[in-house]
Amino acid sequence: MPITVSIKTTARIDMVDITHLVRREVEKAGLKEGLCVVYVPHTTSGVTINEGADPAVISDILQKLKQLVPPHDGYRHAEGNSDSHIKASIMGSSVTVLVEGGRPVMGTWQKIFYCEFDGPRSRKFFVKPISC
Amino acid sequence: MPITVSIKTTARIDMVDITHLVRREVEKAGLKEGLCVVYVPHTTSGVTINEGADPAVISDILQKLKQLVPPHDGYRHAEGNSDSHIKASIMGSSVTVLVEGGRPVMGTWQKIFYCEFDGPRSRKFFVKPISC
Amino acid sequence: MPITVSIKTTARIDMVDITHLVRREVEKAGLKEGLCVVYVPHTTSGVTINEGADPAVISDILQKLKQLVPPHDGYRHAEGNSDSHIKASIMGSSVTVLVEGGRPVMGTWQKIFYCEFDGPRSRKFFVKPISC
What we know:
3 copies of one chain form a homotrimer.
Chain A: E1 3-8, E2 14-17, H1 19-28, E3 34-39, E4 45-51, H2 55-68, H3 82-91, E5 94-100, E6 103-104, E7 110-116, E8 122-131
Antiparallel strand pairs in A: 1-8, 2-7, 3-5, 3-8, 4-7, 5-6
């Protein structure tokens, strides 16, 4: 099994900062230089990198996604969470960050966010450190 | 040339499950542990990972993309397929999956979908297994 | 530090073809076969692969993003650029291309575009060549 990290989300749509968890796994793996892939194995979830300084940015992203892809919109899927699947594909199922000096090299304001669109849920994601 | 796989799409906008084709190439390459990148070299196509159990999910994704980015919407591009290019960038040109024990490690409900937005077409995609 | 390339964008929302810059770094690194990751460390920027032959395609992509995510739309983030952050997450923070024979292997019409959504700005991006 790949390195697996568990988190909890707390609302139907939610973005959780997982940067410190990814950094911790990079350090535990002893990766000095290379890449790190963060992969989400759930189909109503995605992962994205965006601003982590002002929580209003995340709230604006979620609000816009809700407006573009509302929960009820004549969908055919009987489980009632088609909007969650659509939002997941818009965000994407993985991100790749570079690693140098034993740490992810990200922009000053960047954080990695786990995005759940059909929560609240207990979820997991995979971290794959790659030496290169 | 990278490993190249051919497929056919059957409608103007279509999502084709290519999971078994990716898995087959991972097995043929003898990759035991690492990553696999799936890359789409066409500009009206993308690739995404989402639910494969109920085909209504895919139909809802396509319907929402059609609603957000309709085929005719005052576009400037003279070929008449600007909507296809826009949808392609929303989905993305590649996905990365982790490989363990000789197989892609994906969620229970996850499948990899080739997304064509200006078909039907004969298309190809690249598979790059990476040992690490 | 990873390989870092500087560019300038010239409008509030802008997509700049960086394909030749990525190719140059792949050549300078002497990478013959593998992958190349292009990573954007700014939170109002993204990166995407799309058609580079007719500039109208890019203009249509930008116009549609502006329509779906307008600059002013009741956002909470006080800096006034929430739309830029949202567009960045829709496009994504990195792309991965395959490399064979010392060059990125892309489709005939594909180009890599740096997307800035809160410019004009002097920006940078990272290039990570991976031998495999």
